[in-house]
UniProtKB/TrEMBL annotation:
Pfam families: DctP. The keyword Signal applies. This is TRAP-type C4-dicarboxylate transport system, periplasmic component. The lineage of its organism: unclassified sequences, metagenomes, ecological metagenomes. Keywords: Signal.
Amino acid sequence: GPQAGGWFRKEIKSAKDFNGLKFRMPGLGGKALGKLGASVQTLPGSEIYQALASGAIDGTEWIGPWADEKAGFQEITKFYYTSGFHEPGAGLALGINKDRFNKLSKSHQKMIEIAAGETNLWNLHQYLANNSQALTRLRAGGVKTLEFPDDVWDAFGKASQEVMEDNMGNELFKKTFDSMRSALTQSAAWDSLSAGAYTRQRTRVLG
């Protein structure tokens, strides 16, 4: 599912609050924040805690409650945004030399395919099972869980679209983006009517 929006030293009340903010976020998401005026940092995971504790950065994204709790960010700041725009669905990937793979028997190819799929599914279920428990502990420890205001989401969307347009000159990027956008459009129509409606009604009825 979507990764968390991250940890901040202060609340984000408008998109203007990102201007000059020293925030750790790599990849395309970081480029989008840069368009909002953020000073984007690309620190490796092993350096984030110290940078946040020392004030070298004003905030960071990581993964979600379970992993973030292990990283100890709650020891430094209590403002935690629970949904981010930058990674709506993480996926694991396995890369294999194509020539080598094609030399394997069909049964061995299928074994690799199934093992990779099961590993991805196992990883997803681990986070689904542990994120809520970790979130409960974080809140009990004084962490304030927040959502970005609508105008911030609007700014995320505009900046993200600009980043996409900046990269459309790359043939592989455009092919990948167009495929993703088409699949998203097709799946969203049913998802909102099925899983989306069910989740809303379950919450309304059962709390």
